[in-house]
Amino acid sequence: MPGPLDGIRILEMSVAVTGPLAVGLLVDQGAEAIKVEEPRFGDQGRYVGVASGGISAMFQMCNRGKRSVAVDCTHAQGRSIVLELAEQADVFVQNMRPGVVDRLGLGYDTLSARNPDIVYASISGFGPDGPYAQRRAYDAVIQAQSGLVGSQTGLNDKSPRFLRQVAADKITAYTAAQSITAALFARERGAGGQHIELAMLDSSVAFLFADSAAHEVALDNQQRHLAQSSAAYQRAIALADGHMVVTALTDDEFHGMTKAFGVDSSDPSVATMGARQRNKEQTSDVFRAVHAAAAEMPLAQAVEALDRYQVPFGVVLGVEDLASDAQVIHNRLFSEHDHPAMGRVRQPRPAPRFSVTPAELREPSSPIHGQHTDDVLTELGWGDQLEQLRADGVIK
After folding, report:
1. What CATH number is given to the structural domain containing 290?
2. Cα(207)–Cα(211) distance, rounded to whole angstroms?
3. What is the reported pTM?
């Protein structure tokens, strides 16, 4: 069975993570994507971080299943090739700085004049205009400017804390993918094509405000002593041979936790959630006792006890431990295959499981730079010009 986006054709002119991952999510769900890369260097994401065979792990995860066409869009013939591809596309995605794609002659007005039904997504760092619009933007820049770093930095930290991943990039990519599918849905209902403008700054701030900017949302609140996010109070529990996190919110969960670790919680001052809110010191005493008892307990024993009392918990796993986790194995989350350039690759399947239109990877590998140039151009009718185009530097 085809995926839910089967038949949707995407033309992508984006690099790094935001655009490529957004399109990659749609490819995972059945869309077809042609990735246009400049002939000399290609997407710089190919070379960032751990790599094998000239392809980085990040590039593989963001670009699996796409076709790569190496075309110089600054050349008139290269521009013509891209315009022809855009005429056949449902979606166009680009993440250049504002104005660059227009100077190439590939802006929204140009493409929509030739293909009125196209959904055109422009992803930028700070937005299409304004005081920061022309600044170069990478993930760390947006993490800092959006408040993501500020929300991670505690009172006792000597310097700001960054999330140890390209969080702003990924937040923007997921927002872009959802926005594109929403625009496609609107098109199916008769709205036609449209231009989506998405700033990394905007998507990251929206992500932050969902749960981590409480005082900036509820401006008249009387609880300024509390942290911006309830997640700020969470910390791991050290066991004799590992770590876990326990989230005991309800009364049953709280007292189940104390039973699991052999701690007395019979004091009426901690009997209920309301009582624990009023009696912070007594509640803290119980948690300190839990941490002390846990430090002497093997991880396996704690897991068994918390399961028995139905207390929410999670074992702190290293990334290298995920593939051997029992639930991950049960979910059949990972698969392995041989990439023609990278060698052995392990990667998670598409996360959502559709009952009628399963999201299955038709091609699990990311493309080699320019791998599909000849095939795609031949399909367009440029097959007899390949030799000359290559000699002129229009294609790789």
Report:
1. 3.30.1540.10
2. 8
3. 0.94
